[in-house]
């Protein structure tokens, strides 16, 4: 299956998108037409998910979550192909901007499916692993929920990011425009079962 990204290319100014990421830490754009999204959602549901821990950390750094995950995508499946196409698409578009925003080449190579059941707590404000660099990409395959950024673990100054089915969320990581700070973010209001595909660049595995 080939994914038609022409709509996105015509409708997105990546220089402006880079400015949003630098200022706010996250941005989103429409990516998948409905029929392609539904095919990907069907494939995602065929994977085996492991239940995540209900909490991570301790004290004032505890993170509560209600999710399951799968980090073993079929190498020949459409989801794996989507990972490659999104990598190629984003690299091409960001290289065409006035100033390439990454200190090292963008290499999105660590995909993971996440599933939140209806009524789940989602995941409370947190920071991603320190080894993730440049950009985190999250593609919403189906379901309801609110993705947001905030100033701290208490959820101060929440900024909601559009994250409907078919949308792609971009989250700034260290290495983007010289940034060193990670961005607090979370997922809430899971009104129906939510499936998403996260893609990351892990410097500890691929320096």
Notes on the structure:
With 207 residues, the chain is α+β, with helices and mostly antiparallel strands. It has a single domain (6-200), classed as Jelly Rolls, CATH 2.60.120.620. Helices cover 23% and strands 29% of the residues. The chain is built from 4 helices and 13 strands. The chain has helices at residues 6-11, 14-24, 34-45, 78-95; strands spanning 26-30, 50-51, 55-56, 63-64, 68-70, 110-116, 123-126, 135-142, 146-150, 159-161, 167-172, 184-188, 194-200. Strand 9 and strand 10 (159-161) form a beta hairpin. 33% of the residues are buried.
Q: Strand order within the widest sheet? A: 1-11-8-13-6-5-2
Give the name of the CATH architecture.
Sandwich
Shape: globular
Secondary-structure element series: HHEHEEEEHEEEEEEEE
- Number of extended strands: 13
Helix content percent band: 10-25%
Round the mean pLDDT to the nearest integer and report it.
91
Question: What count of domains describes the coordinates?
Answer: 1
The whole-angstrom Rg is: 16 Å
The description of the largest β-sheet is: 7 strands, antiparallel
CATH class: Mainly Beta
CATH topology: Jelly Rolls
The number of helices is 4
CATH H-tier superfamily: q2cbj1_9rhob like domain
Summarize it.
The protein has 207 residues and is an alpha+beta fold. The chain contains 4 helices and 13 strands.
Tell me the layout of helices and strands.
Layout: H1 6-11, H2 14-24, E1 26-30, H3 34-45, E2 50-51, E3 55-56, E4 63-64, E5 68-70, H4 78-95, E6 110-116, E7 123-126, E8 135-142, E9 146-150, E10 159-161, E11 167-172, E12 184-188, E13 194-200
Antiparallel strand pairs: 1-11, 2-5, 3-4, 5-6, 6-13, 7-12, 8-11, 8-13, 9-10, 9-12
